[in-house]
Design a protein that fits this description.
The protein has 14 helices and 19 strands. It has about 425 residues and is an alpha/beta fold.
Length: about 425
């Protein structure tokens, strides 16, 4: 049983479609993972990382109703188990198979839950899941911004995608829990904030700040505020659909994953248009907002920045985000992990995957030749320096994780989930 701090990375597995659904953007392919997956897993071990955000490409695995191709998945997950790398399994990352179409399809939630059940039954040793990644961003980019998948640009398109994505996530959690009752769900979601540029922009900014919570409100069965309730019903959600989310309370199986990038804060104009503001509040301030709302253990599940001309930009950002993690912890928020996303550089995220330009983004711990970047060396050292310190703080969160290979000895009973240990009297109360 492992209960220490979760230092993690991830292997980018976004699979949206663009150009009216005619072109598939597969980051696993663009970044060379299909060819170098054994090397990639070895690099995870080389860094001293035990937890990996990872998942099979949904469109290549889920071929039809009750029709699956597990070949790649069998090989990769067997190797992860051998290496004792704990996967945080990401089952749906920004796209669906062509035969499902897109997130406007009302059949998607049930079909996806069947896939999640089949996955859990095939790999019963897997305990940690992110069933649907960044639901808010996926619905926004697909249903409102017109960038991916259905490429709609309406509030109704956004709400439809949102309700289907959250329902898929909830049904998948229920399906996985039937197979693995001690499953833990780390719901990676973008943590956002919208700043009013002028007094006249306060109204639009407040609306956007309310809308950013919708995916997690519905996922965790929290009643939305009256303005958002009207917004949902005005744009196609029924009262019955809304009450489905209120009636499915699975919070006690969940860790709230908060993603933060320099692009997560926005300036809102009087017209309601928004643009990136850069870092103003930062991760710790915004994460405290989310924690105050949901009262769940937290994990920093994504961050990165490009290595720029000075060569130290990503290293400086790593230390800034790590300082924010410590600040959150010292504020009394139960934070259990940190993630640099991703293991290798990515491709075409500078245009949010809207174009197939083949432009390499220097965001990884390693480049695409699998050579370590300065931020990779810095992260490796950070893990060495801190992995023994964090579990001995005066307030220590215990995450009941069963290591791969030990699941046969586990009872598979739903645990109390998270216990607070306060018996270390000689630990410093503040780490900054």
């Amino acid at each position: 049983m492992s209960s220490g701090f979760l230092f993690a990375t991830g292997i980018e597995n976004s699979i949206p479609t663009i150009n009216g659904g005619r072109v598939r953007v597969d980051e696993l392919e663009k970044c060379g993972h299909y060819q170098y997956w054994e090397t990639d897993f070895a690099l995870v071990k080389e860094l001293g990382i035990q937890f990996l955000r990872y998942g099979p490409p949904l469109y290549r695995t889920f071929l039809g109703a009750n029709n699956y191709d597990w070949d790649f998945c069998d090989a990769t997950f067997a190797r992860l188990r051998e290496l004792q790398i704990v996967p945080i399994v990401d089952l749906c990352h920004f796209g669906v198979p062509d035969w499902i179409g897109n997130f406007q399809n009302p059949h998607f939630p049930l079909l996806f839950a069947q896939y999640a059940a089949a996955f859990a039954q095939r790999y019963p040793w897997v305990q940690l899941y992110t069933p649907v990644n960044e639901i808010y961003i996926c619905a926004l980019f697909s249903g409102l911004y017109g960038w991916w998948n259905e490429q709609q640009t309406t509030d109704r398109g956004f709400v439809t995608a949102l309700k289907h994505l959250v329902k898929a996530n909830v049904l998948a959690m229920r399906a996985i829990l039937k197979v693995r009752p001690d499953a833990i769900f780390i719901q990676s979601e973008s943590s956002e904030y919208f700043h009013a540029e002028k007094p006249q922009a306060i109204g639009p900014a407040e609306l956007m700040n309310a809308r950013r919570f919708l995916s997690l409100d519905l996922n965790y069965g929290r009643r939305v505020d009256s303005e958002m309730y009207e917004y949902l019903l005005d744009n196609g959600m029924t009262r019955e659909e809304y009450h489905f989310f209120l009636d499915n309370q699975l919070k006690h199986h969940c860790i709230m994953g908060n993603d933060y990038y320099i692009t997560n804060e926005h300036l809102v104009s009087t017209s309601g248009a928004s643009r990136a503001s850069g870092e103003i509040f930062g991760y710790s301030v915004i994460t405290n907002m989310y924690y105050d709302r949901y009262q769940l253990p937290v994990m920093h599940t994504e961050t990165n920045i490009c290595q720029g001309p000075e060569g130290n930009e990503a290293v400086n950002w790593l230390w800034k985000e790590w300082a924010n993690v410590l600040r959150v912890r010292n504020d009394g928020v139960p934070i259990v992990g940190f993630t640099w996303y991703s293991l290798t550089d990515q491709v075409d995220w500078d245009c949010a995957l809207r174009e197939n330009n083949g432009h390499v983004n220097a965001l990884g711990l390693y480049d695409l030749d699998r050579k370590i970047r300065p931020v990779g060396s810095a992260y490796k050292k950070l893990i060495v320096d801190w992995h023994e310190v964090l579990p001995t703080q005066s307030v220590c969160l215990q995450v009941p994780i069963v290591m791969p290979g030990n699941e046969r000895t586990a009872s598979f009973k739903p645990p109390a989930m998270f216990g607070i240990a306060t018996d270390v009297t000689d630990a410093p109360s503040n780490t900054q």
